[in-house]
Design goal:
The strands form four sheets. Strands 3-2-1-4-5 form a five-stranded parallel beta sheet, sandwiched between helices. A five-stranded parallel beta sheet has the order 6-7-8-9-10. A three-stranded antiparallel beta sheet has the order 12-13-14, covered by helices on one side. It has helices spanning 11-14, 27-36, 70-73, 84-96, 108-120, 158-171, 191-202, 221-229, 246-258, 285-295, 311-319, 340-350, and strands at residues 19-23, 41-46, 63-64, 77-80, 105-107, 124-131, 174-181, 206-213, 232-237, 263-266, 271-272, 301-303, 306-308, 329-331, 375-376. Helix 6 (158-171) packs parallel to helix 7 (191-202). The protein is an alpha/beta fold and 387 residues long. It is 32% helix and 17% strand. It is globular, with a radius of gyration of 21 Å. The chain contains twelve helices and 15 strands.
Amino acid sequence: MKSTAIDKLYNQDWESITDIILFGYGRQGKRLYKTLKKDFRIVAIVENDISKQGRKTEDGISILSFNDAMALLKQYKIIVTTAEYHYKQILLQLTEIGLVEYKDFVMYQQFVSEWYYKFKKKVYILKTDIMVTPACSLNCENCSQFVPYWRNKTSFRLNELKQDLDLYFSAVDYVMDMNIVGGEPFLYNELYEYISYLGGNYRSQIGYLGIITNGTIVPKNEIFELIKKYDVGISISDYSKQVNYKNKIDRLCKKIKENDIPYVRNKNIQWFDFGFPHDTYNYEDEECAKHMRNCNTICHCLNDGKVFYCGTAWAAQKAGIFPEDKKNCVDLRKIDNKNMEDKKNIIECCLGNVDDGYIEFCKVCGGYGNDNDNRVVTAKQKNRGVV
């Protein structure tokens, strides 16, 4: 890495802040709110979504429109919690009223990574996902994990997953958002043991801890008891409009409610067209860095003792359909946990500060950015055994 990605905030303006405003209160904003309010007084939340304006959080923080928040926006530092896809609009709104990026406002990935490292000497990572099994009850043709194309769908060994956690949390002080994913995680035979280990040893170092499921599997009661014990949220990707399994999701939701577990049921999910592996993009070297910045993925993942910047690229590699790219990861086994400068490499990786400014997968992938307007049919099923 030729430079540092965590040197953008104006130090004199940010070092001693105690009060902030959040711009955006979607899924990521809500999760960040719960963590950031431990260290900061959140004065207000700003939302462009009319349906959210005028409401309040559970503890009474007002959700304001941009116009109603105008005076406050000029008084306090602003953390923008939306996806990169919407950030350009908000950047324009804020600069038009005279505010300056990195001085008055900043994207949440940059803030979490840089502020805690520079001013608290801590390694805070925004998001890390952990796949426990590539096995899945569905076979989606355009799966972001490329599940239909995996050559080996054997679940990961419990001991190896535990070792990954030990390596990760020996170097990372706190992760704002961590999800157990698949495949379908409720198919993992050792899920109870894994959650027990993760929750029992590291729950205090995690903000939001969740499981992402397609809703086809209703786990045993002991799993629900453990999920509740360690305050694990459940996120259901509801594809029942495309695949006939609404009754299964309804049964799962009923069990979740009976156990008083927080959950979301995400419907009308739009999928980006990555192109890969059948109709790949072909970005030239000089275009790739800009393309990667546009994507600005937060889908980092942990596997095989390494933190990977792009979970989609990792999945393609793990599936055996794309070559290994060492630029896409940092090896935790090579990190000196007593050396903050060394641990900074984890933050740099998660911010996408890599040699050449892009990873190799960017050349063939459409990405999640606003330079990709192509979408595919959500959860279109592929005949099993057909590649």
